[in-house]
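Technical note accompanying the year-one report. For the benefit of new consortium partners, we illustrate the data format agreed upon in the data management plan: each record pairs a sequence with a structure-token string. No post-processing was applied to the example shown here.
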Amino acid sequence: MPQFVCCGINFASESTYIEHRQKVHGEQPQVKYTCCGIRFYTAEGYGEHRQQVHGESAPSARKGLLARLFKRS
């Protein structure tokens, strides 16, 4: 499980971590990934989602849409 740490605080999820960074530090992070209608701001949060929800062991090695449709590697 990835750790989201800021100001010496461990945050349980990406969403609470991003909320902290917005409120305390005034940051406006950019959405880097989307999946299942959820926006992810970090690769760690996205990877955790892909592993837990979709059962992928290596979410960064996603296949393209056509490869998935035709089951090619």
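Partners are asked to follow this layout when depositing records. The chain has three helices and four strands.
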